[in-house]
Amino acid sequence: MQGQKPKIERYHLHRAHPEKLQFEVYDLKTYREENLEKASKPHSHSYYQLIWFLTGSGEHTLDFKTYAIRDNSVLFVSKDQIHFFDQNLDLTGWMIHFNESFFMHSDVDIFLKYNIFNTAKRPSYVIDEKTSEIAASYLALIREELAYRPRFGYEEVVRFLLKSFLINLERVHQKDENTDIGFNSHYELQFFKFKQCLEGHYASGLSVKGYADMLNISSKTLGTITKTIVGRSPSQLISERIVLEAKRMLKYTPVQIGELAFRLGFEDVSYFIKFFKRTMGCSPGVYRNQVVGK
After folding, report:
1. Are 198 and 233 in contact (CB under 8 A)?
2. CB-count exposure of residue 279 (10 Å: 0-12, 13-18, 19+)
3. Phi, psi (5° rounding) for residue 66?
4. Which H helix or E strand runs over 33?
5. Residue 2, pLDDT score
6. CA angle at residue 71 from 80 to 12, to 5 degrees?
7. Inter-residue contact 93 to 52 (CB < 8 Å)
8. Low-confidence ranges of the chain (pLDDT < 50)
9. What is the pTM of this model?
10. Which stretch of DSSP H or E encloses residue 77?
C-alpha cells in the first residue's frame, strides 16, 4: 500500500542479560543525542518508561496523540505503546526504564501500574516545584545506589525508591484529577487484576468466562466489578483492548488484515473485519487509509 509505514521496532531492557538489574536511569539529553534516529521513529518497548523533561520544548507522540513538551513535565509510556520524539534535541531531563519483573511485587504496585501507566488517562502533566524537589531527591538516591551496585540490598533500595518516586508523582496527578489515592473497595483491586490479565491475554481469544476463571470469580461477579468501577461490561473492555492494538498495527505497520486478525486471536478474517467495523464505524482497510501518513 502506497505511503504505508515500515515495521515498527520493539526494544527490550537487558533481554539478553536477565541477571542484570531490570532498571536503568539515563540522562535525557545524552540519550537523545546518542539515539537520534532510533528515538525519532515510531517504536515500542517491552518495558515501562518515564520521561521527566526538566527543560525543553517540542512534541512527543504517544499512540494517537501528540503532547507538548514543557518545563518540568513528566510523560508515562506503558509497555507496548507506540511513541516517538520529534527532532528537537534542546532537552534536559531524565529517562527511567524498568521491566515489570522489577516492579510488580504487591497490590500497591498493581494500583500504581494501572493509574500511572494508564493509556486512557492523562499520561503527561507538569509537576510543581515542591514535587520536583522531592522527586529529584529520590532520583539522586537512586543514582547513588546504581553507582555502587554490588552493595548489599541495593536492588531493594532502588525498588523502594522508585515506588516512592512514583507515589510522589501520582499524588500530584490524583490531586489535579480531584480523586482519592488508594483502593476504596475490594472491587477496585479485582478490577486492576482483571486489567492485568487482559494485558497478557487480549490476543488469546479468551471469553469473559475465561477471564473470570483466571480470577477465580464468576462471570456475573466480573461484570458487576467492571460496571461498578468504570461503567462498562467486561466484553466491552476486552473489545476496546483488541481494537486499540489493531489501531496501532494499522497505523504504524504494513501488516496485512488477515495476519492482523490471526495475531489478535481471530480465526475468521471476515469476523474480525465486522468486529472492527462495529466498534470503529469503518473497516480496518478504510481506517488504515484514513490514518496512514498522519
Report:
1. no
2. middle
3. -115, 130
4. helix 28-34
5. 41
6. 20
7. yes
8. 1-4, 181
9. 0.85
10. strand 73-77
